[in-house]
């Protein structure tokens, strides 16, 4: 396994030439909600994959039921090192950190932080604006409404 043993992730190299890093969020009881432990493991797994010269691409995935649920009712502003991954990042922010997003027809994306009295973290406002445009991003951030895939 790349980066050691994980509690919240399934990590392997796959593909015909074993050059694709596959990282699967594995916290099914919480719909893969991003907790501090999962984010720390994810950073460790990504660093291991990025430093492996055999790995040419990394796929980050969730389960059949959920990619990543929101972090929970009490966001924490704690930053893990200089990598920009924060513990209160939700699935939408995590997905937007990727170069390409493949989503199922029933997938929904949202920035519900306003419903908790905070704003999206982990670059959520900047990346969302680039992905969906200013008007839709403002609507999502200011109302907490979700959009479909």
- Classified by CATH, the class of the largest domain is Alpha Beta
What CATH architecture of the largest domain would you give?
Answer: Alpha-Beta Complex
Distance between the termini: 32 Å
Structural class: alpha+beta
Pattern of helices and strands: EEHEHEHHE
Helix content: 25-40%
What is the CATH superfamily label of the largest domain? Answer: 2-enoyl-CoA Hydratase, Chain A, domain 1
Could you tell me the strand content as a percent range? 15-25%
CATH topology (level 3) name of the largest domain: 2-enoyl-CoA Hydratase, Chain A, domain 1
Estimate the mean pLDDT confidence. Answer: 81
The major pleated sheet works out as: 3 strands, mixed
Number of β-strand runs? 5
Q: How many domains make up the coordinates?
A: 2
Number of helices: 4
Shape descriptor: globular
User: Residue ranges: pLDDT <50 for 5 or more in a row?
Assistant: 73-88
Strand order of the largest sheet: 1-2-3
Any idea what the radius of gyration is? 15 Å
Protein name: Enoyl-CoA hydratase, mitochondrial
Pathway: Lipid metabolism; fatty acid beta-oxidation
GO cellular component, one term: mitochondrion
GO molecular function, one term: enoyl-CoA hydratase activity
């Amino acid at each position: 396994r790349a980066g050691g043993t994980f509690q919240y992730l399934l990590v392997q190299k796959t593909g015909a030439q074993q050059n694709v890093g596959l990282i699967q969020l594995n916290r099914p009881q919480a719909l893969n909600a991003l907790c501090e432990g999962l984010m720390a493991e994810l950073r460790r797994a990504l660093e291991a994959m990025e430093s492996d010269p055999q790995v040419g691409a990394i796929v980050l995935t969730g389960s059949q039921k959920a990619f990543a649920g929101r972090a929970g009712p009490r966001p924490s502003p704690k930053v893990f090192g200089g990598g920009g991954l924060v513990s209160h990042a939700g699935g939408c922010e995590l997905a937007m950190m990727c170069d390409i997003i493949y989503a199922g027809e029933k997938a929904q994306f949202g920035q519900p932080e306003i419903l908790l009295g905070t704003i999206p973290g982990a670059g959520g406002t900047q990346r969302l604006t680039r992905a969906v445009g200013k008007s839709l991003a403002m609507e999502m951030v200011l109302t907490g409404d979700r959009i479909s895939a």
